[in-house]
């Protein structure tokens, strides 16, 4: 580790200094250390790097009121890990505290302490120190990293760092500005340490002559501890070792984990406490001790209670609740059964995350959630190998540690947004964690010993099922949450959203009430979504405006009616997309998106052109472009069956097919029948009713092929006031998932033949 010269100039120093106080540690200049700080210090890091050139102060917290001299440090690297801030800093000099400005954080006015260290009368003394220090290193078997020190002062400070961990002595060395006096103190301490160590070796040699077995060696260890006490050389390092050993002995650990912990503890005993390697080992031992190897939560497997909790927390979604109850029932009959990995798939705001919280509450387990959106590094899942400073365990092991139990409900949010690059494939790393056949010995690179995840109840969420890699999807039981009808949204708002927002804004039921008509107006005119997230945002906005009225005007008792909504939210967004009195050549199609179902209009234009061709606009993907060409070619080949008078209609004219909303890319295998109907509508001059929508892929044989996302598409059509939907015949069974109140108000027509479907759409 090379210490760089000219690390900062005097002009780099800030006017005020943010100071970090460390427990049981005094850091001298001339070394690189790792500092662990809690999350409250995170907000000061940017300021230190931006305004203070990365320079901060370090003092010992035990005598913080009396300390006048501290250590200046320069930040080399910052690692943000969960609730911790890990700093790698180089100590570069001394500072004198002139005035304490604030105590939390500790901010001081200071003076940089200049050290006159190139005096000729100290060279001989310095050479003597170097000679004896090298003998001390040989005697004790310690290592000392030398190189690149700027001055004698830096060199002797570095020696003092490696010599003793006594806080009082190190603080005394720090406050000794005169280099000669500091040399003399270090030399005296070095002579004393060498005499103690030589005496200790003689004692051990005499005792160890008759040692024959492990029991004798254990006796020698005890004698070693006693001799240290008699010589008065016990230090914080030994206290740390003893504390870690005590904690390890007090917990149940698997055999491999205990062996690894004992090995690391033995390594720690041979290291300098202030070294960066020692900090890595201490962090690892803390993880081993804190992990809940044998700690778990007893499941409250009461089916009636679980059903009640799910009903209280969520309105509707009956099939999803029933699936969850089924999984809990299996746990009642067979507690050792490996539960299914549930995957909630649906648009934003339909309650995927809150459903996971409800499951945890029903089971009486801890709930922990991590977001996988944008994760591209495999180490985020499996952890970093302990080969460098700042290495951390993966998010799964960190989550288990924070949950404090080895069987939490663990939610992996946005699993469809995992990425991959040169740092590995996180989805492949998840396979081991989610596979019931192998997650009983999950291997985290940082932990390096197996951890049993078989008791964890994993729940994943996604907006788009098809973005999840197939091997990962095969290990999960998919539960679709398609969205809500207007009636369901009204009930959800009345039972959950309004009361929650009234409470969170400091209001009371007597202050504000929403009429059902007002809620319906917000849904119809101000939101266009499958879920209820935007609806809650609008309700929250109204509640905030009510809060302003209460504070400023001392008003009381607001009743929000339909006509009041505009006053609070402004003009509506005209969320309804349905067109009225549409022209020939325009047909409403139904599309599926990760945000839910959507009404999508296909427009066609046909006109004379000396070079007949087909033009496609609207940012259509490859699949939709293929659907358009199939529809056009099928119409040309079967023009006689559609009662088109001009047999050369498509051969002598240019055809333009457009899907509005050109800024949004569109693709998917469900627009074929819509495009064919739009072309025939334009050719015959017949309009399609504005309350008809359709979806279905087509083939050159003339078949209408089944598509996915039927429930989401039907809900979108229902929201837009569509009365009749044309579907492929093979999708007939999907109608069973549609709520009964919607099926009563809508007409569904199923076709296997493309010609029959088009003729039905145009017959009126």
How are the secondary structure elements laid out?
Blueprint: E1 16-22, E2 32-38, H1 42-51, E3 55-60, E4 69-81, E5 84-103, E6 106-113, H2 123-140, H3 152-163, H4 167-175, H5 179-208, H6 214-231, H7 236-249, H8 255-269, H9 276-290, H10 303-313, H11 318-333, E7 341-345, H12 352-363, E8 367-371, H13 379-382, H14 395-403, E9 409-413, H15 426-434, E10 442-443, E11 450-451, E12 457-462, H16 470-473, E13 476-480, H17 486-504, E14 512-514, H18 516-526, H19 533-553, E15 558-560, H20 565-569, E16 586-593, E17 596-608, E18 614-617, H21 622-637, E19 653-658, H22 672-684, E20 692-694, E21 697-698, E22 704-705, H23 710-719, E23 724-728, H24 740-745, E24 747-751, H25 754-762
Helix pairs in contact: 2-5, 3-5, 5-6, 7-8, 8-9, 10-11, 10-12, 17-18, 17-19, 21-22, 22-25
How would you describe the overall organization of this protein?
- By secondary structure, the protein is of the alpha/beta class.
- The chain has six domains: 10-113, LON domain-like (Archaeosine Trna-guanine Transglycosylase, Chain: A, domain 4), CATH 2.30.130.40; 120-207, no CATH class; 235-290, no CATH class; 303-480, Rossmann fold, CATH 3.40.50.300; 486-569, Helicase, Ruva Protein, domain 3 (Orthogonal Bundle), CATH 1.10.8.60; 586-762, Ribosomal Protein S5, domain 2, CATH 3.30.230.10.
- It is 41% helix and 19% strand.
- It contains 25 helices and 24 strands.
- A hairpin with a 2-residue loop joins strand 4 (69-81) and strand 5 (84-103).
- Helix 2 (123-140) packs parallel to helix 5 (179-208), helix 17 runs parallel beside helix 19 and helix 21 packs across helix 22.
- The protein is elongated.
- Mean pLDDT is 82; it is low at 1-6.
């Amino acid at each position: 580790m090379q210490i760089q010269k000219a690390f900062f100039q005097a002009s780099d120093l800030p006017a005020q200094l943010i100071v970090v106080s460390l427990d049981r540690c005094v850091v001298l200049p001339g070394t690189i250390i790792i500092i662990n700080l809690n999350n409250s210090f995170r907000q000061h890091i940017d300021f230190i790097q931006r305004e203070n050139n990365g320079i901060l102060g370090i003092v010992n917290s035990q005598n913080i009121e009396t300390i006048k001299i501290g250590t200046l440090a320069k930040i080399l690297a910052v690692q943000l890990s969960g609730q911790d801030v890990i700093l790698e800093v180089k100590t570069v000099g001394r500072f004198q505290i002139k005035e304490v400005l604030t105590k939390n954080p500790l901010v001081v006015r200071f003076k940089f302490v200049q050290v006159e260290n190139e005096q000729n009368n100290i060279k001989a003394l310095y050479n003597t120190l170097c000679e004896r220090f090298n003998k001390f290193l040989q005697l004790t078997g310690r290592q000392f990293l030398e190189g690149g020190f700027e001055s004698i002062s830096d060199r002797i400070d570095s020696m003092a760092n490696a010599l003793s961990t006594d806080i009082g002595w190190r603080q005394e060395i720090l406050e000794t500005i005169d280099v000669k006096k500091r040399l003399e103190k270090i030399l005296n301490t070095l002579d004393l340490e060498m005499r103690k160590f030589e005496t200790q070796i003689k004692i051990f040699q005499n005792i160890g002559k008759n040692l024959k077995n492990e029991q004798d060696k254990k006796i020698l260890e005890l004698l070693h501890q006693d001799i240290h006490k008699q010589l008065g050389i016990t230090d914080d390092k030994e206290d740390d070792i003893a504390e870690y050993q005590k904690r390890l002995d007090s917990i149940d650990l698997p055999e491999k984990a205990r062996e690894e912990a004992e090995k690391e503890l033995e390594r720690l005993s041979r290291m300098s406490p202030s070294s960066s390697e020692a900090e890595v080992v201490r962090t690892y031992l803390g993880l081993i001790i804190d992990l809940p190897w044998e700690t778990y939560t007893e499941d409250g497997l009461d089916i009636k209670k679980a059903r009640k909790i799910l009903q209280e927390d969520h309105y509707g979604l009956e099939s999803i609740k029933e699936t969850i109850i089924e999984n809990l029932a299996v746990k009642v009959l067979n507690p050792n059964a490996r539960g299914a990995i549930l995957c909630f798939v649906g648009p934003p705001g339909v309650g995927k995350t809150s459903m996971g919280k409800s499951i945890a509450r029903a089971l009486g387990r801890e709930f922990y959630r991590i977001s996988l959106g944008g994760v591209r590094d495999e180490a985020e899942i499996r952890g970093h190998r302990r080969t460098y400073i700042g290495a951390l365990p993966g998010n799964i092991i960190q989550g288990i540690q924070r949950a404090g139990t080895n069987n939490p409900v663990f939610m992996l949010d946005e699993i469809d947004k995992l990425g991959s690059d040169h740092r590995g494939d996180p989805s492949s790393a998840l396979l081991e964690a989610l596979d019931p056949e192998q997650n009983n010995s999950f291997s985290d690179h940082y932990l390096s010993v197996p951890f049993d995840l078989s008791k964890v109840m994993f729940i994943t969420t996604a907006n788009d099922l098809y973005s999840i890699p197939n091997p990962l999807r095969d290990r999960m039981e998919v539960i679709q949450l398609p969205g809500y009808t207007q009636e369901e949204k009204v009930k959800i708002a009345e039972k959950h959203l309004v009361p929650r927002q009234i409470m969170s804004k400091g209001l009371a039921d007597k202050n504000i009430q929403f009429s059902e008509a007002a809620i319906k107006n917000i849904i119809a005119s101000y939101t266009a979504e499958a879920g209820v997230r935007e609806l809650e945002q609008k309700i929250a906005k109204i509640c905030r405006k009510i809060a302003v009225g209460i504070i400023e005007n001392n008003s009381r008792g607001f009743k929000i009616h339909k006509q009041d909504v505009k006053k609070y939210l402004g003009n509506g967004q005209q969320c309804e997309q349905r067109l009225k009195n549409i022209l020939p050549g325009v047909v409403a199609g139904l599309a599926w998106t990760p945000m839910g179902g959507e009404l999508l209009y296909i427009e066609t234009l046909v006109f004379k052109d000396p070079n007949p061709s087909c033009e496609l606009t609207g940012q259509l993907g490859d699949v939709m472009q293929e659907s358009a060409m199939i529809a056009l070619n099928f119409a040309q080949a079967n023009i006689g069956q559609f009662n088109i008078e001009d047999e050369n209609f498509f051969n002598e004219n240019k055809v333009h097919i457009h899907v509005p909303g050109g800024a949004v890319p569109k693709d998917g295998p469900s627009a074929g029948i819509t495009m064919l109907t739009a072309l025939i509508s334009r050719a015959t001059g017949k309009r399609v009713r504005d309350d008809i929508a359709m979806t279905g892929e087509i083939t050159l044989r003339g078949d209408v092929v089944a598509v996915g996302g039927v429930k989401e598409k039907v809900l979108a059509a229902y929201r837009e006031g569509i009365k009749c939907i044309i579907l492929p015949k093979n999708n007939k069974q999907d109608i069973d998932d549609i709520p009964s109140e919607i099926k009563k108000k809508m007409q569904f027509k199923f076709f296997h033949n493309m010609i029959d479907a088009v003729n039905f759409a145009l017959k009126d």
